[in-house]
Amino acid sequence: MSDTTTAAAGDKIRCDACPVMCYIKPGAAGACDRYANHDGTLVRVDPHVVLERTVEHGGKLVPFQVSGDWDGKIVRQPDLFVTAIGAGTTYPDYKPAPFIVSSEIDGVDMVTVVTEGIFSYCGVKVKIDTDRYLGPETATVRAQGEAVGHVTTSEYGSQMLSLGGVHHLTGGSKKEGRVTCDTLMDLSNCKAVELTIDGGATVVVQAGKPPIVNGVAEERMRVGCGSATIGMFAKQWHGKVDEVVVVDDHITGVLSEHQAGKLLDIADTGIKMKGRRSTPGRYFQVADPGTGWGGTNISDPLSILGPFNPKEAKAGLTMLMVSTTGEHASYYVLDDTLEPVETEMPADLKFSVERIQENCEPALCTVLFMGGAGGSLRAGVTDNPVRLTRSVKDALTRVTSGGAPVYVWPGGGITYMVDVTQMPAGAFGYVPTPALVAPIEFTMRLSDYAALGGHMDYVRPLSSLRDSADVRPMPSIMGRRA
Amino acid sequence: MTRLPQIALLPDGKRLHLQDGPIDLIVEAKGGSEVEVRAAYLMAARRFTGLLDELCGELTELRRAADPRKCSLSGVVAHRMYTAVAPFADKCFITPMAAVAGSVAEEILGAMLQAAPLDRAYVNNGGDIALHLTGGEQFSVGLLDRPDRHGVMRTMTVDADSPVRGIATSGRHGRSFSLGIADAVTVLARSASQADAAATIIANAVDLPGHPAVLRVPADELQPGSDLGARLVTRDVGRLSPAEIEQALETGAARARGLLTSGLIEGAALRLLGETVVVGAAAEALPASQALHGSAIENVMHVL
């Protein structure tokens, strides 16, 4: 981006691409729909038009093998794989008229429609590896103050967010749509985005990077829930300590009461837990959710204990309290009044805490882009769109996004999810509608393609693309597919 | 250096693609010989070069409300635009820009016909189409209500005996804004410029003034310099009851019947939220084949 074309954000700019000389407001496009004002900079926004249009105008989407005759095999590993990225922007200054179906369909010579109108059904699913409390389920997630999605379920060691979707993109205010579009695009392009959750935390999310919750970078995922941790480490603790409490907002585990402790004949300790007992040695709701020990709101683990029962407890009894990530740990010895007193942790117990840490995987944010490809996209691929859907379901056709593997949802349409870190850098774009622009490719046997009514006239051998000016090799980025 | 438009044959080798700024044309001609077709394409390209600059030279005036009494425009295309909108100018706000697409299509078709005697030709300017037909030639025209979806809503046949030589579509999904709520209004008229202006007028008439489910925004807020100024244009249409849809369509259809009676149009198809009303010649239109318009199509796509 050059400075010369950059005006202060918020200003309209004047496009000099043609004599119409449109004034273009931020986030809007000019009369041609080819140029737009992105934060004060004039950018080309030729939509990555659906396959329909690209295929019509000389299709660059159908992948072929590098050389030799087609051997009938589905392209397996993409040594050279033609992706849809940038497919909509064919040679410079060319935008297929989005409103003209130039192939003859149903014996129709031409078609008249209104121009433009790319609407978006897409979003991202974000998995944030953390036990810290990010906010209540269904709470609104905001970016720059605008609602862009919501908190959905808590999963193992992680919190899921669902962002975008058509309601935020087009159903709210103009600003909400724009901010949602920016948020989705940045997350999909593996950029960091700060999200605020109503009644919860502020979290910086970046695909493939640890989440930063309220300014603190998360390091590890929990090794398991509190109860599972007891099960995993009971043998290692046996004989080294009388009691272990693994503090967890979901299921806090208590060694002496837990099935794992019983099997090892660990004696009762007279411990009294707060919270609701689920099954022996497993407690729910020992505290409120938060960003302290094990995803609770506590900083002093003793606050989840009641007084020890003098019938079973005795002075000198030892107790380890540890969080599910091993990030927090304290060691106590009961004094003569049966009060736990924090004491220096013995080396072999420290080792067990380190072992918990070691068994925790690095905490990451993962971002899956989800989009639906239905009617017109499929029609761009074949004359009989539903056959493409069926062939995808029958696994005759492989769907990829920017060359990355996708998960295709069962059911109607071709709704897929893709891990954005598997995609080439900058794979996503936007149109000011607002809507996200994402690549998608369909790969299949040529014979299957013909059988499902493919546009055989537009099939080109890969060799004819290699020297073509409209193919740009994708830059290789560390940690990403080339 | 002079800015040159994009001029290329489409991959089928038959159709010509011309693009300059916001103008995007698909052209196809059929003549006695290949030489004639080539001569026509050459002339189309020649006429197209500089046409946008010609229009932009009078852009300020073209964006003003047309004065029903006199035309102060000088360009041939600008004058055609004015002539097309003038019949509406005393009753409502309309600028010559309402007929720009059809007028350009007509101009290019005219240039082609000067170069060679063609049997059949069309210039499709983003859905606003100028037609040329002789003898037993005919065109089948497909109507779509939503450009982002595939599937022909309806097809129509125009033959040489029919007076129709222009087709245009207007609606709220278009690149230009609409004051009404119609998804698409397609008009058949004696010329493309007339069809273009009438489609705008009828699409504006398909409306439910003050309805809370209709989101309207000042045009110049979306596009500074829009010829519609601060007039409210339709951004979104929420849920409407079947009665409301019928009412809005009927308002538009009444306008269309008026234009039909006064000879300004030959027919119109009005589309709103899945419902269609047809007026005049378009009434002969046949429903499209179901193959491309099943429920799967309604299922939406949107990669984008």
How would you characterize the overall build of this protein?
The complex is a heterodimer of chains A (482) and B (304). Chain A is an alpha+beta fold and 482 residues long. Helix content of chain A is 17%, strand content 25%. Chain A contains 10 helices and 28 strands. In chain A, strands 13-12-11-10-7-8-9-6-21-25-24 form an 11-stranded antiparallel beta sheet. In chain A, a hairpin with a 2-residue loop joins strand 3 (35-38) and strand 4 (41-44). In chain A, helix 7 packs across helix 8 (385-393). Chain A is elongated and about 90 Å long. In chain A, 51% of the residues are buried. The model of chain A is unreliable at 1-9, 47-119, 375-381 and 459-482 (pLDDT under 50). Chain B has 304 residues and is α+β, with helices and mostly antiparallel strands. Chain B is 32% helix and 26% strand. Chain B has 9 helices and 14 strands. In chain B, helix 4 (76-89) packs across helix 5 and helix 4 (76-89) runs parallel beside helix 6. Classes of the chains: A alpha+beta (482), B alpha+beta (304). At the A-B interface, strand 2, strand 5, strand 21, helix 7 and helix 8 of A face strand 3, helix 2, strand 6, strand 8 and helix 9 of B.
- Using a beta-carbon cutoff below 8 angstroms, give the protein chain pair with the largest interface and the number of residues from each chain: A-B, 75 and 71 residues
The CATH topology of chain B is what? T-fold
Overall mean pLDDT score of chain B?
Answer: 84
Order of the strands making up the biggest sheet of chain B: 1-2-3-4-5-8-9-12-13
Q: Specify the biggest β-sheet of chain B.
A: 9 strands, antiparallel
Whole-angstrom Rg of chain B: 19 Å
Shape of chain A: elongated
- Runs of chain A with pLDDT <50, length 5+? 1-9, 47-119, 375-381, 459-482
Which homologous superfamily in CATH is the superfamily of chain B?
ApbE-like domains
SSE string of chain B, helices as H and strands as E: EEEHHHHHEEEEEEHEHEHEEEH
Tell me the number of structural domains of chain B.
1
Find the count of extended strands of chain A (DSSP E, 2+ residues): 28
> In angstroms, what separates the terminal alpha carbons of chain B?
36 Å
The neighbouring-strand order within the major sheet of chain A is 13-12-11-10-7-8-9-6-21-25-24
Q: How many E strands of chain B?
A: 14
List unreliable stretches of 5+ residues of chain B.
283-304
Structure annotation, total helices of chain B: 9
Percent range for helical residues of chain A? 10-25%
